[in-house]
From TrEMBL:
Residue span, KaiC domain: 19-258, 259-486
Cross-referenced InterPro entries: AAA+_ATPase, Circadian_clock_KaiC-rel, KaiC, KaiC-like_dom, KaiC_dom, P-loop_NTPase
Biased composition (Low complexity): 1-10
Keyword Kinase tagged: yes
Annotated keywords: Hydrolase, Kinase, Phosphoprotein, Repeat, Transferase
Domain of life: Bacteria
PROSITE patterns named among the record's database cross-references: KAIC
Enzyme Commission code(s) on record: 2.7.11.1
SMART domains to which the protein is assigned, alphabetical: AAA (SM00382)
Name of the protein this chain belongs to: non-specific serine/threonine protein kinase
Stretches for region Disordered: 1-24
Keyword Transferase among record annotations: yes
GO molecular function, one term: hydrolase activity
Species, as recorded: Desulfobacter postgatei 2ac9
Length: 486
């Protein structure tokens, strides 16, 4: 399998040589084309629950693992709470503290202390300076200073205190991440727009609800003097930390199409001129009851018989339902699964957002290392939140597989015969190598099934429509349209 090329696509242009340090956060360094600006401040803004603190914690934890000491200055969370959050991702803050790799400084303010006018940031900066000198800190995360600023009640004082903190960070030469809550009130947002100008890099985190499904997105608003990915990128949380999922389509570092692979149906192999191609993406599209899933399962068993691994992602049926249905056609999936060569994962599309579905799929691919991936059905992916969410999911999965030499087989339920646009308004044809159209056609008072190859990139194939049947013993495929199956 080929290695992935780290390139976000849609990158801006900028002068080379901007000093950067990698965050170690999965996918973020690809979006930032190398990492955050070294010795400068990066601003993380977003609403509640978008993951600002978690990103900051992981930045420090990944740095500590690599031997780069850091400080966490928090104005909102307690130290025990932060340690619990970190432990949930496998980061042992007490151990890092004992080794002098992370220091937690709590600056939670009592409202009466601010209102009486006996508090500013000079004392906190003094503590930071002492900690930084003692542990030779290279990184610092300032979490939620806006909590303190709001208590001041004076925009001039707020700006003065932030300017004081920013100047010290610049003089100290540490790489800083600052998290702030994004204001929805336009008048309040204007009060804090100076933060965007103060920071060298601004990253916006967003959590939204589309069709009753929650999704998270990350976008780089600016990166002074550097190139970066300019789109919105889905992200989520795993037990190992944050995972941002950029698409690498601009590099197009896809493995070439390989040798023929049997579809599991001899007559279909002949129609396709030899079967599916290794590392290709094939779409089986048709209306309900045309045999899409049955063809997919036939391919899965064909590959398992060659001792190759198949990952089956099902968004429509449970394992028991699929096994029961396939047994009626003499396709028994159970031995394949018991052998460990077939891995079956089933989820309701609306159970979570696109980023969780993506992360689960990508982690399954990494853990199982399949030779082939089946997704049944991509039409159900619309229920992940929107048609564009379905496109985001599919384009990233297909791109990921093509770069690793994984053969992909997709099924799609359509209500109208428009197979060229699998997701309404979004065309996936550029990444699909073969399209097979399956139909239920009424003839003389009966429904009959037929199939045709709409396209098969780079190879000769039958251009005829072929009638077929699904029997207790599998498939029977005839010749051209009108040649009835005996």
């Amino acid at each position: 399998m080929t290695a992935i090329t780290k390139n976000t696509g849609n990158s801006g242009s900028g002068p080379p040589g901007i000093p950067k340090i990698p965050t170690g956060i999965r996918g973020l360094d690809e979006v930032l084309n190398g990492g955050v600006p070294k010795g400068a401040m990066t601003l993380l803004s977003g609403g509640p629950g978008t993951g600002k603190t978690m990103l900051g914690l992981e930045f420090l934890a990944r740095g500590a693992m690599a031997g780069h000491p850091g400080i966490l200055l928090t104005f909102e969370e307690t130290e025990p709470a932060l340690k619990n959050y970190a432990a949930g991702f496998g980061w042992d803050l007490p151990e890092f503290e004992s080794k002098g790799l992370i220091a937690v400084v709590s600056a939670r303010i009592q409202p009466d202390a601010v209102l009486s006018g006996d508090f500013d940031l000079r004392g906190v900066i003094g503590i930071l300076r002492q900690k930084a000198d003692t542990m030779k800190a290279e990184r610092v995360v300032v979490d939620a200073p806006d909590v303190f600023l709001r208590l001041l009640g004076d925009i001039a004082k707020e700006r003065a205190e932030l300017h004081l903190l920013h100047e010290w960070l610049r003089e100290a030469g540490m790489t800083a991440l600052m998290t702030v809550k994004r204001r929805t009130d336009p008048s309040l947002a204007l009060h804090y727009d100076f933060l965007d100008y103060m920071a060298d890099c601004v990253i916006q985190l967003d959590q939204r609800v589309l069709e009753q499904v929650t999704t998270r997105r990350l976008r780089v608003i600016k990166y002074r003097g550097a190139a970066y990915g300019r789109n919105e990128y889905p992200f989520g949380f795993t037990d190992l930390g944050v995972w941002i999922i950029p698409v690498t389509q601009a590099s197009l570092q896809h493995a070439s199409l390989g040798e023929n692979l049997s579809t599991g149906v001899n007559q279909l192999d002949e129609i396709l001129g030899g079967g599916y191609r290794r590392n290709s993406c094939t779409l089986l599209t048709g209306n309900s009851g045309t045999g899409k899933t049955t063809f997919a399962c036939a391919f899965a068993l064909s590959m398992v018989s060659l001792d190759e691994r198949v990952l089956y992602l099902d968004f429509e049926e449970s394992w028991d339902a699929l096994v029961s249905c396939m047994l009626s056609t003499s396709l028994d999936l159970r031995p394949a699964r018991e052998s460990g060569k077939l891995k079956f994962i089933s989820h309701m599309p609306e159970s979570q957002g696109i980023e969780e579905h993506l992360i689960q799929a990508l982690r399954a691919i990494e853990a199982f290392e399949p030779h082939h991936l089946i997704i049944d059905a991509i039409s159900a992916c619309r229920r992940m939140g929107s048609e564009h969410a379905a496109f985001d999911f599919l384009i990233r999965i297909i791109d990921h597989c093509k770069q690793r030499g994984i053969t992909t087989l997709l099924t799609n339920l359509i209500s109208a015969m428009d197979p060229g646009r699998e997701i309404t308004g979004i065309d996936l044809s550029s990444v699909i190598d073969t399209v097979i159209v399956l139909r239920n056609v009424e003839k003389k008072g009966c429904f009959v099934r037929d199939l045709g190859v709409l396209k098969s990139r780079g190879r000769a194939h039958s251009s005829r429509i072929h009638e077929f049947r699904i029997t207790d013993n599998g498939f029977e495929i005839g010749g051209k349209e009108g040649d009835h199956v005996k």
